[in-house]
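1st attempt posting a full record on here, be nice pls
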Amino acid sequence: MHRRATALFVVLAALLGACGPHAAASEPTSEPAAVLAERPTATPSSTASVAAPAAPVLAASVPAAPAVSGTPAASTMVVSAPSTGVPAARPSVTPRSSASSSAPAPSPSPSPAPTAAARSPIALGAYVSGAPWDPARLDAFAALVGAAPRIVMWYQDWAHEGVREFDARKMDAVAARGAMPLLTWEPHNYTSGVDQPRYALRTIVRGDHDPYLRAFAAAAAAWGRPFYLRFAHEMNGDWNSWSPGVNGNTSAEYRLAWQHVHRIFDEAGATNVRWVWSPNVANPTTTPFRDVYPGDAFVDWIALDGYNGGTALPWGGWTSLVDVFAASYDALVALSPRPMLVAETASAEAGGDKAAWIRTGLVETIPSRFPRVRGVVWFEERKETDWRVASSAASLDAFRAAAASELYRGVLP
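the predicted structure (as tokens):
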């Protein structure tokens, strides 16, 4: 997630309630340099005005959505190639208003909230800076919180040798620890800012990257075990090279690019891949979800990223987990029947009680208010602020209690 708020947006976010981070920043020297910038600097997000999504508009006909399962749906779309263009990268961002979101519709009615006891266990995971390049960091995190993460998330770009490839060793290191790999796969060069013509969405659609994609898909198929692929996430913001509205990219090109990549994996027989479409929580400046949704035939899971920046960051002040996610969650429930993840979340310490935020959010809010959510990934890094679970003893105790709960003994299929 990327975040940089103008004075006007700070006032607006303060009124509406905000959350979410992801900015490019340096990481531990033990982790490959190309992974260091692949972290959140989110845009302030508001839950007050999320347009109720209509059925996704695709550039071509899409097969009827199959029943929700852990296996990807086959794609039959033939994608046409648009003209050349320019992409964006990962800078700090100033929130922008999308033309189509200038008059957002009211949020849909909240979905029913079953009791926590009535729902299936949730998989609790983490992004741990430096892992899985250094698997010992996963072990250290497990010892810290008293439970091994059930999901391990990390980032890879498309540009750097030693990072861009499908690496079975990383997958093996995660799977050996009983976790599901969740790879955030970013179609850009993390070092090159927002102007990256080489990685414009139209270059993906017209096949410029097909040799790389085919090799990656073949290696994924050869590995054979299930893993979750979070391709081109947070596309509804304007801080990534694949976002509509920057570098000549359009929402239609985003959908076509996603479908094109999915089709290549289908052709490679990579049915072990679970496709995760993962926007940032919405705010008045973000692209409407429906405009960038590839369609149920191309998506297996839907995820959201959202953070509480408290008073440590200019994102609108202290925001409860329910207020971070509720409006966006409801909009996505109306958009698709797919199961859901929280792919990135964390809280600052400043401005409130982080321990209470964790206790209430993880143990009460997610199980009862967000019944579609089957996995939660904590962003375990000190970046824009100290997101780590051990930023205080009370925060660590609260997270340890959640990790020990029967609620969070789930696994992803």
